[in-house]
Batch of 2 targets.
Target 1
Amino acid sequence: MKSIIKFLLPAFVLLMACTKQDIMPEPIGSPVDGTKGPIKTWQQIIEESPYTLFKAALAKSGMDQVLKTSNIPNYTLLVPTDDAFNAAGWTAQRINTSSKEELSAMLSFHIISSRLESASMQDIRGNIPAKTISSRQLDGHGNWYKRYNDYLYIGKYGDSLMINGIGQNKWGVVTPGINGMVYPISHVLMPPTESMWEYIENNPEFSLYRDAILLSDSLYTEMWMYMGIIDLLNSGTGIAPFTLYLPTNEAFHKSGFNTTEDIYNYCMRSWPLPDPDYDENLFYQQPVTAIDSILFPHGTEVYTTSQLFGEAELGPVYFSNDLLDIPYLLSGMTLYKGERYSTGPVHISLDFRNNNGQPMIRRYGTNMPFVPLKSKDHRVLNGVIHVVDDLMQLSN
């Protein structure tokens, strides 16, 4: 497997969709003229722009004054057009009747507390995680004892500006200001509201995956083992976000698992588990259930290195444009090199391919056929979910 980056380095990140409409959105505004330096502030650019609903929301929320008096020298503003606001239900009437708090929460997800120059991003393959000024308390979600900071994953794919997997405008359509950058976009951005575990529990088509996770957890508990998979899926402070390739019930059916009892019987074939031990390279090896040996390559294999330290907040989050743009880097990529007498190496156990603009995946190191994503780029609190109709097995 290829050693490319460590797990906690914020790997490239963001967006792409696979339809022509997503990859090649209609341009909004005009491409930047790179021959002149900026002569206006972002406030002046917004005031003179045709984006009346953004201006109205900014003024009513009072955020224009808050940003003006902050100590941050530069901002990047992702400004939805009036059509985007109306399509998302943010009409002039709704803006006029919304509270300052509601408007501030919506707008803060569109404002990044740094200057993102398109010229600096255009040669980067994959996406960049960008921290917005949106910060919130996640009561009732996972184990969050600190405020949750919202990130956007921004990048270039083809000639499009991508944000969280969605084509938002033609690349290079931006107005630079003295104190910030203004990018017009074609959709209102929506912050995530569910953790992975909540997404799984709220969608019946993943009931067998949920049951498999709960079953394995009960078996580990029976042997006085703690794996932390449910905590990983639930999210929380100090747990890194990641990418989950979530198998549907149909994926289980294709592999002969029609009921939870089928999954249990499969686990019993290799039960009880052997005791943990060190391998020939002196890496600590934790035995896993038979079903987890299939499910770990779907993303939860990162559990051994998912702990974050200090102010770190990022992890291996890859949107569909990453899978299309850098499949050779992600395939079998080493996320953690391992440490002797401790956790062993952690890899992405998947192989990726760009099939005419469609991301395809299979188990790494096998000649199993590549399979498509059923759906993609479901942004959740602790990363991103891509849905698959197949289990990533070593063989049929």
Target 2
Amino acid sequence: AEQYIETSKRKFYRFLDMETKKIIISKQLNRFDAAYIFSAKQKLKGLQKIGYGYDIMHITLTVSHTENADYIEKYRLLKSKFNDFMCYLKRLMKKNINYVSTYEVTTANDGRFHQHIHLIVIGQGYLPKKIISLLSVKWKKITNSRYIHFKYISKNRNINIFPYVMKYVTKEFANVNLTTVLLFSVKGKAYTMSQRLSQLISEKTVEIGTKKYKYIDTFEVQDIFWGYDISLYDPASLTFFFTFISDEEKTKLLAEAQQQAEATQKRQKENEEAERRNIEIYEKNRMSIINMIKIK
């Protein structure tokens, strides 16, 4: 996790300002930055569109406690069987399921790892005992675990969906703990959501005030001018970028940018010269043809 934090310090995003057509640089945050938590909340803020007045079915899915030696294998089992469980749930309910799921691992009293998924189904009322029984049997069959817990929250309690979900999504973000370490080990995601719900809350354009930006790519410090001429960047954005690196590295990058700019200018000059020669040759050939026609 600490290595991840150090690596993320050298990662940035490129955006195109749709008005000025200049490239804007944005810092890539790591999940332990306070700003990252804010960013995650912004990404999920579309849940606020859902608002109040929905039933919630909160299902906690757990696999048996694991030793340190096999926790990654158990994590992969948990994520794989979670997908199987969701397919089965959809078949039972015979409808689309709007959900957000979050992963968490804690340490049990005996020192072993306690891995589980919080499945928050939005708009799902109280489940009949038969459905609960079938889901419990299914979870035990596919994971050999009897640990599954159902918590129904009635819409009459007027729960706000957004803060309820965010309570589970963000509690692992800001700490280097067991969950984050395991997620880094397997490149796992802290949360997922149904495609339908994701489409519901997604925003098609990135807007900040009256400005619109188009995402280009992500890059590391040393690659800022790789394929991008310095003239393409917004000057203020470059100034912002250079505050994150040493003066020595800044000097080196600017020197490389200057060399690249000179090489680009040289190529452009060569291309212009070649085009000029081609035009001269074309005109010469055209005049020769005209003269030949006149002679005939």
